[in-house]
Amino acid sequence: MRAIPYRLVLIATAAVAALVPVAAVPGAAHAAGPAVVTPAQSAIGSWRTTVTIPGRADSVVTLVFAPRHLVTITGPTGPDGKPLYVGAGLWKLAGDRLSFTVVHPVPAADGSLLGVIHGTQEGAIDGGTFQTTGESYLYKPDATVSGPNPVSMTGVRTAAR
């Protein structure tokens, strides 16, 4: 297989993320205005997040919850010092209940594309930590889909707003 240029993967991920239905995050269609929450409840900021998938080694990613309910996910660092992937999605916070969707590429060791992950998570945020559970689907280049696959995440705030 031929390696896919990193920049092309980023552009494709952004395009796919733009196609994620707003309905995928419950209540996101009504989330245009700023939410009224205390700083301890706000998800906005950067989070060091451990991703757990049964039968696989945990991985650590960075989630950044931004204003306007956008979230980015940056994968673990590869051997070249660059993130293995970057993705995007939408998030919602209702009280202490956090939900979000993310879309990101899954690169192979040779640089080719194994597929694109579409994941959803729901759970609770408590000040500087969050815990969520959900599922992901892997959309492969051959048009097959693998999933749902259970996924849980535990995040620790590294930077606020």
What does it look like?
The protein is mainly beta and 161 residues long. The chain has one domain (6-21, 38-160): Lipocalin (Beta Barrel). The protein contains one helix and eight strands; from the N terminus they run αββββββββ. An eight-stranded antiparallel barrel has the order 1-2-3-4-5-6-7-8. The radius of gyration is 15 Å and the shape is globular. Residues 1-12 and 14-35 have low confidence and may be disordered.
SSE layout and pairing:
Blueprint: H1 6-18, E1 45-52, E2 59-66, E3 70-74, E4 86-94, E5 97-107, E6 113-126, E7 129-139, E8 145-160
The gross shape turns out to be globular
Distance between the terminal alpha carbons, to the nearest Å? 41 Å
As laid out across the biggest beta sheet, the strand order is 1-2-3-4-5-6-7-8
Largest sheet: 8 strands, antiparallel, barrel
Which regions have little confidence, pLDDT < 50, spanning 5+ residues? 1-12, 14-35
Alpha carbon gyration radius: 15 Å
Compute the average pLDDT: 82
Second CATH tier, the architecture: Beta Barrel
Secondary-structure element series: HEEEEEEEE
Structural class: mainly beta
Label this structure with key terms.
single chain; 161 residues; 1 helix; 8 strands; 51% strand; disordered N terminus
Short summary of the structure?
By secondary structure, this protein is mainly β. It is 8% helix and 51% strand.
